[in-house]
Amino acid sequence: MTGLNRPAIRRRGAIALAAAALVATVPGIAMAQGKAAVTIGLVLEPAPGLDPTTAAAAAIGEVVHYNVLEGLTKINADGSVTPLLAESWSMDPDGKSYTFKLRSGIRFHDGEAFDSSDVKFSFERAKAEGSTNKAKKTVFDNISSISTPDATTVILTLAKPDGNLPFRLGENTAVILDPKSAAGTATRPMGTGPYKFDDWRKGSAILLSRWDGYRDAKAAPIKRATFRIISDPAAQVAALLAGDVDTFPRGIGNQAVKQLQADPRFAVVVGSTAGKGILSVNNRKKPFDDVRVRRALAHAIDRKAFIDGVLEGYGVPIGSHFAPTDAGYVDLTGTYTYDPEKAKALLKEAGVATPLNVTLTLPPPPYARKGGEVVAAMLAKVGVVAKIENVEWAQWLGGTFKGNFDLSIVNHAEPLDYLQYTNPQYYWGYDSAAFRELANKHASTTNAKDKQKLFADLQRQLASDAVNVYLFNPQNVAVSKKALKGVWPNSPIFANDLASWRWQ
Fold first, then answer.
1. What's the pLDDT score for residue 344?
2. So what's the pLDDT on residue 94?
3. Would residue 429 be called left, alpha or beta, if left means φ above 0 and alpha means ψ between -120 and 50 degrees?
């Protein structure tokens, strides 16, 4: 930042001292410094626990995925998929059967051996009645049978073809757990990864340490990792400037980017994400069950002004629930141009009397809290009065994510999650037979040209139905000390692959 006055500098110094004091009072954090350790800034505390197979929060994956818990495959920083617990896989020509050959000699942190029975247990647990795995409908319900002919072979038979299955099994929803320790994963995750869980100081920090029993422990130079939970943007910057945090791989307040770019101690890398920032709309509630009302909301929002004012320009507009990084992405941002008069006309056509009073529920991230103020001001211009309700992340998951809301703002970080729109029970309540039919056709089509057309049709269907107001695809801003190497420049998923990090 430029043009800081002296009082602002003094305030920032006070914040830095407070951040340093916090480090000194949390046991385990002060030692996590030096060439063998790293301290990572985390914007949101994982909620309600550390089990990514039962909870939806992306912050869970930032801590445990690839570090403590592993899946059959791995999604890399460039979006490519490589083997992890599986050493190889093959797909039948019809796309409905996959055979995975597993690595042998692998153990969980408690000494239990890993084999095909653990894969079968984990996937059956994910698709069981009552499962809260967020990929249940899109991934695990599509698995019609799981065969384990021997300890190192797993055969998955699908109800519908899914050419993206290896990618989906690299997400944190598909990590493999052991039957003996699975129930305790939320509070003490037990995996096969290069790091083991040590402690969780609620509200402050999560501590991991390198597991010497890992199959290639020498490949993980970092011995200790401390995740510091810092939600406030000013405190994030203060912690970096004070040297108390080594990196914010994502989520740093964008207003601080220029200041950090000018500081020779840091490397600031702007990369891509699979995120879709949306104004979520409860399609079950009146008057939002009328597509004209949802289209009115879409016309009421100036996406460019939102991105410039809230994200400091670090994002691009989107027009459907797809990211520009998706192969086959169609730019539909012109479907709903910023047009307040059109929005008013659509509300009138739908018989909506204004002012229309609604509640806008906002989780903690700055894009939501700051963005909510911007969105509320824009909606007010067309006669929609949004009462802002700020909630903590656990409250958002327990209320909004259960369908108890009018409007909300959230970034859906998961890649290729458009199949959530085939689930009428998902929190926004979209129930479209037409979309489900398109999704089924897309899944079962093997012709590349037809598949590409259907992928575009899926995008257009969501845009036409204005299920939500599609706002932005955020860019990933990673800030690290220059000597720290290996931090992902892009975020195809929310993960921190600590084993690839090192101090130069």
1. 98
2. 84
3. left
